[in-house]
Specification:
Helix content is about 35%, strand content about 15%. It has about 525 residues and is an alpha/beta fold. Strands 6-3-10-1-2-7 form a six-stranded antiparallel sheet, with helices on one face. The chain has a five-stranded parallel sheet with strand order 13-12-11-14-15, sandwiched between helices. It is globular, with a radius of gyration of 25 Å. The relative contact order is 0.13. It binds flavin-adenine dinucleotide (FAD) and NADP nicotinamide-adenine-dinucleotide phosphate. The site of flavin-adenine dinucleotide has 22 residues, from strand 6, strand 7 and helix 13.
């Protein structure tokens, strides 16, 4: 519903002009935009939801109102109530279509219900909540006859390709050589972001800009040894034909503690401790600390409980790969691949926690080491087919990664289209990633416009969407010329806020009501002129 007063329709192109009705209406909007100076109007919640709703999946009525990564799982499940099992399974997933599971959310749920995928724990952003819900829903599937997995659905398009060419899927990674890392932040930054280089010449992998790179990282040895000590075990104990230490380093996830570990602990203890472990295993939170319990914290919480190493390993989840947007172009530097990685480190209580893959890339591999990797093909995140099409790229923080790749690619291929980058981060002095390179691209003319937003330079937060609003008139002109828009980075807040800014700009400078602007942005999405790579 439109809560705003719609801007008046301005008739600039006379009805006698030699244009069709559609052309006249578009031109009126375009010129009205150039002449307008009204302040941007905020979006209502309904309008925001309408914009954010992704493409409808196949299934019951083809709608997927839960397909919004900002909704909590309880709301998503409510929206899917009464729908076929596959649709409810989709709603249980994190809705990011991030590809980490090897599918998008719709295809993963379809693969489970058609029984071509048995693993219920692949949704990394959904974490334990998603895995628990999928397990509960899977019980319904198990009760259904095997011959009728889902009444409404076609067979799944892309099951994980175990036999695929090496390096083309998470199920068949290939080794690539780590070359180097360099810190992108300068002194004074609160961030630790690394430019990472790989050499692909040994494995022969290639990629196109927009693709992501999957990394199989290993756990920190010191952390593993502390866990072995808590178990009271020897690191040479043989488990699965390897030493316990080897298995803990490279085969199992040590964060967060899975429900099955608490179930195991409940079997080997008694009394109040047993009750507590059982409650945690059911997803309850008896002491208000469940969210902070990684595997080590779980062992410390139940100190003295010492499961057998074999049972312990059995209770843990397999180590999952992590995806990173590729920040280089194979056309520009064949056989080379770069990433832009923000390092995850945080403290809980007295212990420093390490993000698995980001700290692996930041400190646990050395030049010349081989790492298991794969290229995750982008679905719906690519440069326009016509190299003349202008592009607007909005990527704060590590969201710049694929846009560096786009720019390097357009330079290498001589694409004549105009390029506009919105980059933002905390501080101009220390967080301007690739600053020299981007300024040089601007000087050379490759980067037509570079718009920057520093959130912590001033008293008030200033974000990329604030800069977009400031230059809304020009942005609308680019849109009217047929530009494609790309958003990359944080899925939870930034992507939503940037889309809202885009709607406001279309409404204000395109002389449309907010509802019309919502429809306009929705249409950009449908036509592939608004693409996102968010995580
Ligand atoms: C398609 C795609 C592209 C991506 N591209 C990039 C990219 O270009 N660059 C990039 O840096 N990342 C990118 N990511 C994110 C990346 O895949 C990883 O999720 C990220 O690096 C963290 O992984 P990790 O293994 O280091 O941390 P993990 O071991 O997975 O730990 C992360 C978890 O730690 C917890 N956590 C983190 N911070 C805190 C805190 N302060 N307090 C409490 N808990 C916390 C959260 O539960 C979080 O989920 C991308 C993701 C996708 C899906
Ligand atoms: N799963 C993980 O653990 C993990 C690991 C790494 C990254 N990520 C995700 O990836 C994102 C990118 O991380 P990053 O280090 O590159 O940068 P970031 O933390 O997203 O910050 C980049 C810039 O965006 C600003 N920002 C914050 N909220 C915003 C909003 N609503 N709209 C627009 N800009 C906003 C930040 O400002 P302020 O900070 O000053 O507000 C900062 O200037 C993270 O936010 C996170 O969601 C996740």
């Amino acid at each position: 519903m439109n809560q705003m007063t719609p801007p008046p329709k301005i008739e600039i192109i006379p009805s006698s002009a030699p244009f069709s009705e559609a052309q006249r209406s578009w031109l009126n909007g375009f010129f009205a935009g150039l002449l307008s100076s009204d302040a941007p109007a905020p979006l209502s919640a309904e309008q925001g939801a309408a914009v954010l709703q992704g493409p409808a999946g196949e299934g019951d009525d083809g709608e997927a109102p839960w397909h919004d990564q900002t909704l909590p799982i309880s709301d998503r499940m409510k929206l899917a109530e009464g729908r076929p099992l596959q649709r409810r399974m989709m709603a249980a997933m994190a809705q990011q279509d991030c590809g980490q599971c090897g599918y998008n959310c719709n295809d993963y749920s379809q693969a489970i219900t058609t029984r071509t995928e048995a693993r219920l724990n692949l949704c990394v952003p959904g974490g334990k909540e998603t895995a628990r819900m999928l397990k509960a829903l899977h019980e319904e599937l198990e009760k259904a006859p095997a011959s009728s997995p889902s009444p409404t659905l076609a067979p799944v398009a892309a099951a994980p390709a175990v036999t695929a060419e090496p390096g083309r899927s998470r199920d068949n990674p290939t080794p690539a050589t780590f070359v180097s890392r360099s810190l992108l932040n300068k002194a004074g930054s609160e961030k630790e972001t690394w430019h990472i280089d790989f050499d692909l010449s040994g494995c022969g992998l290639d990629y196109v800009v927009g693709d992501s790179f999957g990394i199989f990282a290993s756990n920190d040895v010191g952390h593993v040894d502390q866990i072995i000590a808590l178990l009271g075990a020897s690191h040479t104990t043989v488990v699965r034909g390897k030493t316990l230490r080897e298995v803990l380093i490279s085969e199992v996830s040590l964060a967060p503690a899975p429900d099955s570990l608490f179930e195991l602990i409940s079997f080997v203890t008694g009394g109040a401790l047993r009750e507590k472990a059982r409650a945690l295993g059911r997803g309850e939170d008896p002491d208000g600390d469940a969210a902070t319990l990684d595997v080590m914290a779980a062992l410390q919480k139940f100190s003295g409980v010492r499961p057998h190493p074999e049972a312990f390993v059995e209770a843990l989840e397999p180590l999952q790969p992590r995806l990173y947007s590729i920040s280089s172009s194979h056309n520009a530097t064949p056989g080379k691949l770069s990433l832009t990685v923000d390092c995850v480190r945080y403290v809980v209580g007295k212990r420093r926690r390490l993000g698995l893959a980001s700290t692996f890339l930041a400190e646990r591999i050395n030049p010349g080491d081989e790492v298991k990797v794969y290229v995750q093909k982008a679905h719906g995140f690519a440069l326009p087919q016509d190299p003349r099409t202008p592009i607007i790229m909005i990527g704060p923080g590590t969201g710049i990664a694929p846009f560096r790749a786009f720019l390097l690619d357009r330079k290498a291929t001589g694409a004549p289209g105009k390029n506009w980058l919105f980059f933002g981060h905390q501080r101009s002095g220390c967080d301007f990633f690739y600053g020299d390179e981007l300024n040089a691209m601007k000087t050379s003319g490759l980067l037509t416009r570079l718009s920057l937003a520093w959130s912590r330079d001033g008293q008030k937060k200033f974000y990329v969407q604030d800069r977009m609003r400031e230059v809304g008139r020009e942005l609308w002109t680019w849109l009217a010329e047929g530009a494609s828009v790309y958003i990359c980075g944080d899925a939870k807040r930034m992507a939503k806020d940037v889309e809202r800014a885009l709607v406001d700009i279309v409404a204000q400078f395109g002389a449309r009501t907010t509802d019309e602007a919502v429809a306009f942005v929705g249409e950009l999405k449908k036509k592939g002129r608004l693409q996102q790579d968010v995580y």
